[in-house]
Amino acid sequence: MKIIAYLTAILGCLFRLACYVFLRVIPFTLAKYLLPPLYALHLLGLLLCTRKVNARAPNKEKSEHETSAKLESPTHLKTLFSRLYSILLCLPSPFHPLNWANLAVNTLLLAAAAEFAITPFFDKAQNVTFTRVGAIYANGAKIVVRYPSPSVEDSSVDVLWREVSNGTHWQQGPTANLSQHSDWVATVKVENLLPDTQYEYILVDSNRTTLPYPSHPIRFSTFPDSRLAGGGVFRFLVSSCVTPNFPYRGPLHRKAIPGFELLAQSLNLAPVSSSSQETQLGHARQSPVDFLLFLGDFIYADVPVYIGDKREAYRRLYRRNYQNIGFRSIYEHIPIFHTYDDHEVDVFHFSIWVVFNVHFIQIINNYMGEENDLKPPYPNAADAFRLYNANANYGSIDDGQFYYDFRRGDTAFFVMDTRRYRSGLQDPDFSTRSMLGEGQLTALLSWLSQVNHTAAFKFVVSSVPFTTLWLHDAQVDSWAGFPNERRLLLDAFHTVPNVIILSGDRHEFAAIAFNGDTPESHTVYEFSTSPLTPKSQDNVTRARMEVHGSEIREYIEVLPKEEVLKYLPIGNIKWSDIRVDTRNESQPLMYLNTFIDGRPSYNLTIKGSPLVKERPTAVEFSVTSTLRDMFCKFGLVPRQWL
């Protein structure tokens, strides 16, 4: 009897723990296989224990008499604590109401988990209407429109725009051609605008009748012309990874995305359709942020459960996010530039991988494209990402690619695609693996050469962390699993001043400083949302010379290769607020403020090296000879350089 009772309690506690993790910590897909059996086994244990108790009790009246006597005795307080203890630890009890209470608690938890898991199947969000601004140029901007018309197969919406300051008449803009085939989504570009100027736009039908949405104009500001001399100040946000109603808050919040809602609240933003007095007067709120960089996992195709690899299944997940009020408050005020990561594509799968000759079996979701665009479920996943997010990004230097670069004044950005071309795990020799592929690697290093003397700060954006300090599957999934390619890039980064890596994926924040092998090496910084070990295991030893009168002294410095400046693992909602100030060419500045659950948690100021405005002498080459030598060193010589 005791063995069954204890086993029942263990099963009940495991069930509640799994529910808590699934609903509040990690919505792991294995929950659909784990929770029902645990619930059923705990229920079976309760029934067995209850049957044995009933067999031992001669009659109900005696049991009730004993219960009444206990409650009237001086030890009734101890009895109450004992019963509470039974409920907390799922212990079977001879007092039947306690068993019913345990069953009720577990049933409610199972119902909550089921509601969270099946909501994506029923919440199709087919009628969501939205518009947002994507890529911003000095002379234009990309605009995304979704305006469904279920009664027809296709329709069109015109964009009218004007400059805000002088109140000019509306100018005819591009036409967004919408259809069922494209899920009523289209991306257009407004052109012939002035640099560093604020504009606004509305949507009209073919008769130039203003459409009911948006109820007030959407505003945006063009970027300054990067060809003109002089620095400036701007501010942008960095974040990643969102799932509706997670952490779980109940069925009334099934459309909520707490991270976006908290971010909108902190920026004092609301949808343009808000009924506030300010909006009614037609004065749209001016966002204090220039743009948002979203670093991947915008949708979770595989959690809490995988709803299928059909094209409509992926599109539905994007629509669910765009219907969220918090996100609407963001994208109606702030331009957003996207990349993607594994959860936009793949499902959980069993994987066998090898690290240092040790075999591991793990259930992971680390999508590896292997340069195969036909590999399921990539075609349908890429279709949805392209429609809703990628088409509004900047164009790639190579047609049809998701990696791209852009400039905001004298600051340059390169956004990588870390999934489409990454090697598989078949080869146990990780030194031969590539994350970027030859074409993207060439584009990145060519960009680095071009911006070396023309951009004060160079931001390299990766959906996965660049540091190697992660454990478990990150040793394969992050840049740690691509040692040769990573070392090539890091050597190149150390030769260029003011390189900063922005990464996501791991749901925690860390600031890393990469120190080079020589005093002339430029420090490279990474700001990532990922867990890691508290310090680097490898050091670099650098010698530097200083002249003191007629004496030359040598100093030896021992620094960690990857120095952890800050590690913040706690918190469900994280974003970084970055401000760049390049007005002083001799010392450009970058200010980082990281927020966790809406509260400032870490700040850092980086004093950059001065920008030396000179170009390489061998201008006929697409990259510098230094980068060419690095490629040769690692046996990587792109064909176009031969």
From TrEMBL:
Q: What InterPro entries is this protein classified in? A: Metallo-depent_PP-like, PhoD-like_MPP, PhoD-like_sf, Phospholipid_Metab_Enz
Domain of life, per UniProt, equals Eukaryota
Any Pfam family hit: PhoD
Q: Which CDD domains match?
A: MPP_PhoD
Quote the Gene3D superfamilies the UniProt record gives: PhoD-like phosphatase
Q: Where is the PhoD-like phosphatase metallophosphatase domain?
A: 282-542
Name of the protein described by the UniProt record: PhoD-like phosphatase metallophosphatase domain-containing protein
Source organism per entry reads Agaricus bisporus var. burnettii (strain JB137-S8 / ATCC MYA-4627 / FGSC 10392) (White button mushroom)
